[in-house]
Write a structure and sequence with these properties.
The complex is a heterodimer of chains A (84) and B (241).
Chain A (H helix, E strand, L loop, with lengths): L2 H16 L20 H15 L5 H4 L5 H15 L2
Helix pairs in contact in A: 1-2, 1-4
Chain B lengths: L6 H7 L22 H15 L2 E4 L11 E4 L6 H9 L6 E6 H4 L2 H10 L1 E5 L5 H13 L3 E3 L18 H9 L3 E7 L1 H4 L12 E5 L6 H6 L5 H18 L3
Parallel strand pairs in B: 1-7, 2-5, 2-6, 3-4, 3-5
Antiparallel strand pairs in B: 6-7
Helix pairs in contact in B: 6-7, 7-10
The chains are: A mainly alpha (84), B alpha/beta (241).
């Protein structure tokens, strides 16, 4: 999948999970402090990614997430490992 | 099919598909528990006369474990006051604590003496605490959790952490709201002195998880956990002091 399409898809998914319109999500904004996401809602993002892409993001990766860009990079990296 | 149903991931994080070791409950018991009857007997004197404890709603507790006891948090003595109210039932009650506290000579000794402590090694990863609590519940005992995480500085309820809702929904056990009052005046944060002041422990009616589990079939899992957590908070607010 092209990178920009993947990024758009993930942004849409995150927007749906955290209930913030896509246009209000800056990919470099801190999703916890700037978008008011609590730690468990942050995990729900990965639960939704697991549902959509079959990616079981390990817990140590969860601690590395701050921005949507971080989420996109992790998904990209894990999909590459899966050979998609 | 609910395309928002993300329970699989949450259940994996909680270790719900892993078997519960046969020794899950016994492995957390330390030698300190043999001192417990003596310590609670000694505590009965101040809890009856000096800071008299009134217990309400004890009949609301489920007849048998497992359940999740979820009180507000005011003081380091909260656990003791709730456990004292439970009588023999406290032997089937566990709480999760970090090594940081359990390894402190004075505090660790009292914590292990007054209750069954499940040791976790880090505070950074909140799933390790939830996994430990889930294993206890699945092994058939009850757990004690302060949903606020921290002591309230002024007696007003702090926001609740959603983990308690996650734990209750995914394990399916009843969640018992408990209102503690007075302990902040008896032993405020930072104090090692016990002041005379009445205490009230009010056990609310258990929240059954069936309706929430049903709701999860058509909603985002997190939203249901959040709803349970908020309902719990409102129930605690509604319990008289």
């Amino acid at each position: 999948m092209p990178d920009d399409q993947l990024a758009k898809e993930i942004k849409g998914l995150v927007s749906k999970v955290i209930k913030v319109p896509e246009e209000k999500i800056d990919v470099n904004a801190n999703i916890f402090t700037d978008l008011g996401v609590d730690s468990l809602l942050g995990v729900e993002i990965f639960a939704a990614l697991d549902k959509k892409y079959g990616l079981d993001v390990p817990e140590d990766k969860l601690a590395e997430i701050n921005t949507l860009n971080d989420v996109i990079n992790i998904v990209r990296e894990m999909l590459a490992k899966k050979g998609k | 099919m609910n395309d928002q149903d993300t329970s699989g991931y949450w259940r994996k994080r909680l270790g719900m598909d892993e078997p519960v070791p046969a020794d899950e409950l016994t492995k957390h018991l330390s030698w300190h528990r043999h001192l417990r009857p003596l310590f609670y007997a000694a505590s009965s004197i101040p809890l009856r006369f000096y800071c008299p404890e009134k217990v309400l709603g004890l009949e609301n507790l489920p007849a048998k474990p497992p359940y999740i006891l979820a009180p507000n948090h005011l003081s380091t003595m909260d656990f003791v006051t709730v456990a004292w109210a439970l009588g023999k039932r406290k032997e089937k009650l566990y709480t999760v604590a970090t090594s940081f506290f359990l390894d402190q000579p004075f505090m660790g000794f009292f914590m292990k003496t007054y209750g069954n402590m499940v040791r976790i090694d880090t505070e950074r990863d909140f799933f390790s605490a939830l996994r430990a609590a889930a294993r206890i519940v699945r092994a058939g005992a009850s757990v004690f959790i302060h949903p606020e995480g921290l002591r309230s500085p002024d007696g007003n309820l702090l926001p609740f952490h959603t983990g308690v809702g996650l734990l209750a929904v995914e394990t399916g056990v009843p969640l018992v709201p408990v209102r503690i009052s007075g302990t902040i005046d008896v032993m405020p944060t930072g104090s090692i002195i016990i002041y005379p002041h009445p205490i009230t422990i009010n056990f609310g009616k258990p929240m059954e998880m069936g309706p929430y589990i049903e709701k999860k079939k058509t909603a985002q899992a997190y939203d249901v956990y959040k709803e349970v957590t908020e309902d719990l908070r409102q129930r605690i607010i509604g319990l008289s002091r």
